[in-house]
Predict the 3D structure of the following.
Amino acid sequence: MQKELSGKVAIITGANQGFGLEVARKFVLAGADVMLCARNDAMLQQAHADLVKLAAPGQKIFAQAADVSIEADVQALVSATISKLGGCHILVNNAGIYGPKGEIEEIDWAEWVKAIEINVYGSILMCRAILPHFKAQKYGKILQLSGGGATNPMPRISAYAVSKAAIVRFAETLAEEVRGTGIDVNAIAPGALNTRMLDEILEAGPKKVGKDFYERALKQKDSGGAPLGRGADLALFLASAASDGITAKLISAVWDNWEHWPEHLDELSSGDVYTLRRIAGRDRGCEWGDK
């Protein structure tokens, strides 16, 4: 039986732990050849060893340490993927960090900038590097990891919030730039996950992240959070032919009925549903606010 990603090659950044590793696992089981990337090489090699055990005979799994905020690392990663795996069809921009926690005037500015460099510049650099290859073959899938910061303010975690809103708008914009070329670009909101990023919030404590956010994190830790597998299933769907034509959307793994979206391609393509848009007064019944 043909697997969903048989014959496809994927690059997954931030793939040595958490959500990125779960996406890699799903892709390997779906038949893809995979290039794993992360900054921590020791953890990356362990992830690689674990995933190789899941691979079928002839399936290629490679790993290369890289910092996606460094252009030379990005170019080397993409070149190695095309050279070793014979091409590339899927890019999963998962690498990301929270950055500093605290009020904007008190945080370490260099750490704030570094979070933007990894979360925003890193995703854009990866896209810039892979797009010529995608355009030449008239096919490609770009998956951008979003989160709560894209749709809600996140006091005291401003670098993360700003970066997540930025990369969703970039994904929408890029989708329009490449519309009609066979390349789909979408952003994924995987839900509140119990990963090392949640542990960071708990370690930071209520003084740095705020009492309300800290208490929500405690409840999430106790409840187990959103299942990693649900978001990874969405990533698999968006990487596969089943999602062809779905592009420029911000999709919630938990709340959206995305499995049935292929039945509604015309509506998805012709409207602004599942996108970032301004809420006008008329949208909330405030007739005094608009002309």
About this structure: The first strand starts at residue 9 and ends at 13. The chain has a mean pLDDT of 92.
